[in-house]
User: Which sequence fits this backbone?
C-alpha cells in the first residue's frame, strides 16, 4: 500500500496511536471522565479550527481568527449588561463582518489571504484593546448565568460545550456536503480555474468562506468568555497555532481542496491529546507552543500538495 | 552512433513506449512522426534524459549510457530545441546562450561581458543570425528566438568531445513559409556539425528534410521509411491505421444551418492587442471555425463570448441581447458553454466526481434554497454516462482519474445537460486517441443537428475544414478571410495557409 493511499487515513490512525501511547503511559488518561473533560475544554479551540477549515479548504488561511476571538470576548463582556442574550448576536455579526472584510480584500483587492487576514486581525485586536481599555473585564455572574448559563451547564454528566460543538459540527457538515455553497467551496478548493469556467461566482464563495471563518472565530471567543466569565484583548492568545495545527493534522492541506470539517474534528482531538499528554509527560506550559510549532511544520510538509505549489517563496 | 534498443516506458494506465528501436547516424536527419498520443514526446523525453526508460538500453558509439536528467544528456551531446521555447525572455541573447555555463567567462567573481559577447557572436554565426548578442530576447521575433535556441544547443560542440544529436520539436509550427525554408537550409548545412531528429506533424516537411522517417502509432514504431520512396498517403495511413477520409469528420452529416436566426452577433469586437475589428454572426446549427496560428487571437475570442474577457471595442449580442457586463456567470445564464483547451485545469475539477462535475455549472437546477438534490444529480449523471458512452465505473468516480476522452465527454455533458445552445470548443480533440476524437466529431454533428451554434478552434486544419460550415481565418488578431464550407466545395489546406501567414 502506497503512502498516497494511507495518507487519507493518517489522521485517525495518528489519533488512535496517540491515545494508546498516552493511555499506556498513564491509565488514568483513558477514564471517561477525563476524556469528556478534555473534549469539553477543547471546544472553543475546535470552533475556531472549524471556521479556519473553510479558509484553508479554498487554499487560503485566516490569521485573524485569534484576534477576532480576543475582540469578541471583550464585546461579549461589555455588551452583556446592556443587551443580555443579544450580545451573542453582536459578537456573531462582528465576526461575520470582519471575515467578510478579509474576503473582500482578498478577492477584490487581490491581496493574498495571509496578509489580508493578518491586517484585519490587527484591526480586531486593536478594537478589543480600545473597547476594554486594555484591562481584563469580568462578567456579572448572575447576568452571565441568566443569558448564557446554558452554554456551560452540565447534563447527564456531559458538559454543554460538547453539545454546542456538536451542533456546530453537524451544521458545518450539512453545509459542506449538502448545499450548493459546500459544492462550490469544494470546486474552488480543488480546481479554481474550472470553477470560474463553469460560471461559479468564485469571489462570492471565497468571501463567504472567510465570513464563516470570522463568524466561527467569534463564536469561539463568545464561548470562551462565558466559560471564563470575562474578557480581555489577549485572553485567547495561543489559540491560533493549535487551530491551524488542528486543521492541517486533520488532513486539510494548506493547498486546499481535500479534507473538510470532519477531518478538523479529528485534528482537534489530536491537538487535545497532544496538549494533555504534555501534562502527563511534564512538559512546561511555556513550551507548548514550541511543540505545536514543530507539529505544524511536520504536518505542512507531510500534507501539502506539491503539484499545486511548484514555487515556494 | 546513437541508438535505442528495445526501450520500454510505462506510466500508470498507459504503455507509452513499446519495445522501441531507434538509431541515428553521424550527420543524419531523422524524422519522427505520429499522431498526438502516439508516443513521440515520450520518446523525445527519453532521448534527452527527462525520462528514464523502464527497460532497454541507450548506447552511444556502442557504449551503454544512462541519463538521470537532461543536463547529463547534454554532456553526452544530446541537445533539444523546444517547441514552447525555453529562452528566458527578459535576459539578453548571450545570457540565454550561456545560461548555466557562465563560469567560463568569470574572472575573480565578475563576468567578463565582452568575452561572453564575442563567444555568443561566434555561436550566432553558426545559425547565420546577425544580431547584437546584448539584445534583450523579448525584442526578437519568434523565428529569431528559435535560431538563438539552436545556437544555444550548438554551444555543446565546443563543450563536449563526441558527436551532437539535436532534437527539433515541431520547429516549424509557427513559422512562415520563407522562415521554414531558411531553417531547413540551415539545418542541412549544419549536418557537418550535428545529427538532427526532426519531430513534426507536417508530413510534407518531414519528407522534405529527413533522410529516414520513423512512424509511430500507439507507443510503437510501426515503420521506418526511406525518404526516397516516401509517400504522404502511405505514411498517413500507417500513422492513423486506416484511411483518413471524409467519413472521419462525418461530412455526410453536415446539414445547412438556420441562416434566418442569429445566436451570437459580434460587431467590431476587439480586445487589443489580441484581436480587433471582429464581426460575425453565429446561427443555430452552424459550426463556425476560427483558424489561425498560435497567438492569432482565437482563444481570446472564445473567452470574450463566454464572458471571461471584457472587450474594449465593439459590441456583442447573444440571442438579440446586448451584453454589457462580461462574466462567466452571465455567459452561462445566456446558455453559452465553454470547452476550454486546458481540459484538466479549466474543463473538469479533479477531486470532484462525475456527477459533481456535470452539475457544477447548473447547481441552481438541482437544488432548492441552496440545498442540493443529490439523487437527481446522480440520475442525470447516469443518463449522460450511457448517452455519451462515458467509460467510468460509476458516477462516483473522481473525474481526475478518467482518461482524456472521457473527461472531455463529462465537460460536454455538463454544458449540454444544462441546455447550452451556444458551444465554444477550444481544441476539443487535443490529446485524445482516434476513437475518442471520432466520438467528439459525432457529438459536434449531433449538437449541430439539435440547433446548437458552435464556435470551434480545431486542433488541425484538416479538422477545421472537415467539421465547419464557415471558416474565419485570423492573423495577428485580424480577420483575413471568410470561407463557406459547404460539403463538396470546401477550401483546401493551401487556401487557408495562404491567409494565415
Assistant:
Amino acid at each position: 500500500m502506497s503512502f498516497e493511499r494511507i495518507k487519507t487515513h493518517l489522521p485517525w490512525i495518528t489519533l488512535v496511536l496517540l491515545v494508546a501511547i498516552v493511555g499506556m503511559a498513564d491509565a488514568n488518561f483513558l477514564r471517561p471522565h477525563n476524556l469528556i473533560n478534555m473534549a469539553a475544554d477543547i471546544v472553543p479551540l475546535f470552533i475556531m479550527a472549524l471556521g479556519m477549515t473553510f479558509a484553508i479548504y479554498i487554499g487560503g488561511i485566516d490569521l485573524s481568527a485569534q484576534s477576532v476571538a480576543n475582540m469578541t470576548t471583550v464585546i461579549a463582556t461589555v455588551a452583556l449588561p446592556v443587551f443580555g442574550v443579544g450580545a451573542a448576536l453582536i459578537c456573531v455579526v462582528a465576526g461575520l463582518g470582519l471575515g467578510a472584510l478579509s474576503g473582500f480584500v482578498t478577492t477584490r483587492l487581490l491581496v493574498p489571504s495571509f496578509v489580508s487576514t493578518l491586517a484585519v486581525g490587527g484591526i480586531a485586536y486593536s478594537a478589543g484593546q480600545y473597547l476594554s481599555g486594555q484591562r481584563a473585564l469580568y462578567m456579572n455572574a448572575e447576568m452571565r448565568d441568566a443569558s448564557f448559563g446554558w452554554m456551560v451547564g452540565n447534563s447527564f454528566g456531559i458538559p454543554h460545550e460538547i453539545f454546542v460543538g456538536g451542533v456546530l459540527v453537524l451544521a458545518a457538515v450539512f453545509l459542506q456536503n449538502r448545499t450548493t455553497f459546500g459544492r462550490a467551496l469544494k470546486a474552488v478548493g480543488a480546481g479554481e480555474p474550472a470553477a470560474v469556467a463553469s460560471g461559479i461566482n468564485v469571489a462570492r464563495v471565497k468571501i463567504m468562506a472567510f465570513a464563516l471563518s470570522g463568524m466561527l472565530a467569534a463564536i469561539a471567543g463568545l464561548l470562551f468568555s462565558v466559560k471564563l466569565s470575562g474578557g480581555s484583548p489577549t485572553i485567547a492568545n495561543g489559540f491560533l497555532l493549535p487551530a491551524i495545527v488542528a486543521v492541517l493534522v486533520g488532513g486539510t492541506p494548506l493547498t486546499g481542496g481535500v479534507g473538510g470539517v470532519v477531518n478538523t474534528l479529528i485534528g482537534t482531538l489530536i491537538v487535545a491529546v497532544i496538549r494533555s499528554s504534555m501534562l502527563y509527560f511534564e512538559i512546561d506550559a511555556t513550551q507548548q507552543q514550541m511543540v505545536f510549532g514543530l507539529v505544524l511544520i511536520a504536518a505542512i510538509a507531510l500534507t501539502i500538495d506539491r503539484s499545486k505549489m511548484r514555487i515556494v517563496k | 552512433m546513437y541508438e535505442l534498443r528495445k526501450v520500454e516506458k510505462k506510466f500508470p494506465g498507459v504503455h507509452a513506449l513499446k519495445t522501441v528501436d531507434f538509431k541515428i547516424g553521424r550527420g543524419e536527419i531523422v524524422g519522427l512522426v505520429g499522431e498526438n498520443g502516439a508516443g513521440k514526446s515520450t520518446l523525445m523525453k527519453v532521448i534527452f534524459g527527462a525520462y528514464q526508460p523502464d527497460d532497454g538500453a541507450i548506447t552511444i558509439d556502442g557504449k551503454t549510457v544512462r541519463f538521470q536528467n537532461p543536463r547529463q544528456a547534454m554532456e553526452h551531446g544530446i541537445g533539444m530545441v523546444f517547441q514552447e521555447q525555453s529562452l528566458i525572455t527578459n535576459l539578453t541573447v548571450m545570457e540565454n546562450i550561456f545560461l548555466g555555463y557562465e563560469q567560463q567567462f568569470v574572472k575573480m567573481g565578475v563576468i567578463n561581458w565582452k568575452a561572453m559577447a564575442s563567444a555568443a557572436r561566434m555561436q550566432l554565426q553558426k545559425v547565420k543570425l546577425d544580431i547584437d548578442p546584448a539584445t534583450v530576447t523579448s525584442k526578437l521575433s519568434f523565428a529569431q528566438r528559435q535560431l538563438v535556441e539552436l545556437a544555444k544547443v550548438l554551444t555543446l560542440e565546443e563543450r563536449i568531445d563526441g558527436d551532437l544529436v539535436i532534437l527539433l520539436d515541431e520547429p516549424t509550427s509557427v513559422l512562415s513559409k520563407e522562415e521554414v525554408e531558411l531553417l531547413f537550409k540551415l539545418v542541412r548545412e549544419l549536418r557537418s556539425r550535428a545529427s538532427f531528429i526532426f519531430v513534426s506533424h507536417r508530413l510534407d516537411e518531414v519528407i522534405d528534410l529527413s533522410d529516414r522517417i520513423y512512424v509511430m502509432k500507439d507507443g510503437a514504431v510501426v515503420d521506418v521509411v526511406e525518404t526516397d520512396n516516401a509517400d504522404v498517403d502511405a505514411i498517413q495511413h500507417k500513422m492513423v491505421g486506416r484511411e483518413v477520409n471524409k467519413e472521419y469528420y462525418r461530412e455526410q452529416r453536415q446539414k445547412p444551418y438556420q441562416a434566418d436566426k442569429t445566436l451570437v452577433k459580434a460587431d467590431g469586437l476587439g480586445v487589443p492587442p489580441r484581436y480587433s475589428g471582429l464581426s460575425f454572426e453565429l446561427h443555430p446549427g452552424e459550426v463556425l471555425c476560427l483558424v489561425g496560428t498560435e497567438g492569432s487571437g482565437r482563444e481570446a475570442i472564445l473567452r470574450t463570448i463566454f464572458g471571461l474577457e471584457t472587450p474594449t471595442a465593439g459590441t456583442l449580442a447573444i440571442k438579440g441581447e446586448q451584453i454589457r457586463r462580461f462574466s462567466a456567470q452571465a455567459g452561462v445564464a445566456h446558455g453559452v458553454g465553454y470547452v476550454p483547451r486546458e481540459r484538466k485545469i479549466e474543463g473538469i475539477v479533479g477531486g470532484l466526481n462525475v456527477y459533481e462535475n456535470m452539475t457544477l455549472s447548473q447547481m441552481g437546477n438541482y437544488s432548492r434554497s441552496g440545498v442540493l438534490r443529490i439523487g437527481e444529480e446522480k440520475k442525470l449523471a447516469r443518463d449522460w454516462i450511457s448517452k455519451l458512452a462515458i467509460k467510468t465505473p460509476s458516477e462516483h468516480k473522481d473525474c481526475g482519474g478518467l482518461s482524456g476522452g472521457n473527461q472531455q465527454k463529462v465537460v460536454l455533458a455538463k454544458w449540454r445537460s444544462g441546455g447550452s445552445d451556444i458551444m465554444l470548443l477550444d481544441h476539443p480533440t487535443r490529446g485524445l486517441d482516434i476513437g475518442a476524437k471520432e466520438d467528439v466529431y459525432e457529438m459536434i454533428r449531433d449538437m449541430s443537428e439539435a440547433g446548437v451554434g458552435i464556435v470551434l478552434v480545431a486542433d488541425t486544419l484538416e479538422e477545421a475544414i472537415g467539421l465547419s460550415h464557415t471558416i474565419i481565418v485570423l492573423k495577428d488578431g485580424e480577420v483575413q478571410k471568410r470561407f463557406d464550407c459547404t460539403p463538396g466545395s470546401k477550401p483546401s489546406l493551401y487556401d487557408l495557409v495562404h491567409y494565415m501567414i
The mean pLDDT of chain A is 87. The first strand of chain A starts at residue 137 and ends at 138. Residues 42-236 of chain A form one domain.
